[in-house]
Amino acid sequence: MDKKREQLAFYEMDIVKDMMGLMGGRALRGIMSNFFTSRIYAGKVGLFLVKNYLEATIEKGERRALIITDAFTERFAGNVTKYLDLMQMDYKIWSGAEPEAPLNTIEEGVKICEEFKPKVLIAIGGGSVMDTAKAAWVLYEKPDVELESLSPFDELGLRAKAKLICIPTTTGTGSEVTKAIVIRDDETGRKFATMNPELTPDIAILDPEFVVGLPKELTAYTGMDALTHAIEGYVSVWKNDFSDGSSLQAVKMVFEWLPKSIEDLTDLEAREKMLVAACLAGMSFGNSQAALAHSLGHSMGSVLRTHHGLSVGMALPYTIEFNCTECEETAAQYSELAGLIGIREKDDVATSMKFAEAIRELMVKIGSPTSFKEAGVKKKDFKAGLEKLVEFAMMDSSLTMNPRNTDSNELRKLYEYMFDGKKIDF
Ligand SMILES: NC(=O)c1ccc[n+]([C@@H]2O[C@H](COP(=O)([O-])OP(=O)(O)OC[C@H]3O[C@@H](n4cnc5c(N)ncnc54)[C@H](O)[C@@H]3O)[C@@H](O)[C@H]2O)c1
Ligand SMILES: [Fe+2]
Question: Which residue has the CA at smallest separation from atom 2 of ligand 1?
């Protein structure tokens, strides 16, 4: 608990405690309904518009861009550099980002920024690349910032040195529009999320050219991440009317377009729609926060190294079953979402349960595992990691945003049910 307190220092502030009614939660609504997003260009013309924007905002002799990618997404850099060439922008490509944004790679990124002094950082990649770029950018701008203890209420004064542009190459995280960064601490192996409104990128470009070749598995997993953001954003204690609107459209779009983008990997319309759905889901949870499925999922990523979308997606239906029986208002919210896909049972709890089932059916259809067993996690590895899973999930900031209060015994039970694929009955 001490560690959790340390990490969530800002939750100790009386005003925040009051707002959250630790954890009655509802008090938070209405008090804080800020809404932050990047400027979004969706479609093929985005890169051209960004060229105009950079030309207008960066002086001629100062035009230096650092393109941040990983070893795979480096191949997309040429799609961007052709526009930079047109405006005689000096650029460097750094492809050192790694899955789950480990701290040591972020430090490497900062060094390159300090040497090259870019006026704009352009991240091309999935959530890991975008989070690496966001974190390196913060430390380039403000070397004294401690990422883990950033609060959403700090005034950082970013953007004195550079702007940040994000181009997603996966269709799930929404990091291109969020104020969040998820980082892996190399020493402990723990993933932690940190957030501040100023971390919201300046521009997000949603261009299907960057996701057209996304393989089936990643399409499925990242699509489940988007669905989890949309649903958790709709029930989190920090939800608000702005995030609600984004969630409603994102849930509708994921149910319609995710199966299509898996059935036909060349369906460009489905790809484009999933890019938009993931971005809308990011706009939702980025302004309302993720909840229990993300606490469980971050911990799975830390301990078992499972993909983020696979992890949170697997946890999602269990958390719906867990939350809906204890929180009347939350059951009504799940019911509203279920109504979008034509589900209506005798009451809100039954409807929520059916909704959880429909999500599992979607996962089966797209090939995303619904239990640890299905994901191929061995019982002995699960047992060996269980206490760490629980410990890290307890420390995760998303837990504070869940509508149902919980403890380590329940988290342990949730994981055990998830191992076997058993519906939650407690
Ligand atoms: N900051 C936020 O708001 C936020 C939100 C959700 C998730 N996240 C974080 O994002 C990370 C997950 O990101 P992700 O799911 O996008 O995956 P990722 O960025 O970790 O990429 C996974 C793998 O897919 C490859 N890849 C990327 N684009 C590809 C493409 N078009 N075709 C083929 N392969 C491609 C990458 O090279 C990598 O090997 C996690 O660390 C998660 O915690 C952050
Ligand atoms: Fe996520």
Answer: 175
pLDDT for the residue 34: 80
Looking at the chain, the number of H-run helices and the number of E-run strands are 15, 8
Ligand 1 centroid to residue 227 C-alpha, Å: 15
pLDDT of residue 20: 52
**Helix (H, G, I), strand (E, B), or coil: what is residue 408?**
helix
203-206: strand order across its sheet: 39-42, 203-206, 163-168, 120-125, 64-70, 90-97
Position in ligand 1 atom list of the atom nearest CA 286 = 3
Q: What is the pLDDT of residue 82?
A: 94
What is residue 1's predicted lDDT score, i.e. its pLDDT?
34
- CATH 1.10.3720.10 assigned to 39-210: no
CA distance 64 to 109: 15
Residue range(s) occupied by CATH 1.20.1090.10 in the chain: 2-29+216-420
Q: Compute, in angstroms, the gap from residue 175 CA to the centroid of ligand 2.
A: 9
**CATH 3.40.50.1970 region(s) of the chain?**
39-210
What does CATH list as the number for 2-29+216-420?
1.20.1090.10
Ligand nearest to the CA of 290: 2
292-303 vs 379-395: helix crossing angle, rounded to 10:
130
Ligand 1, CB cutoff 6 Å, lining residues: 70, 72-73, 99-101, 125-129, 131, 169-170, 172-175, 178, 180-182, 211, 213-215, 218, 222, 225, 308-309
Residues of the chain with pLDDT under 70: 1-33
Give the global pTM: 0.94
Number of CB atoms found within 10 A of residue 246's CB: 28
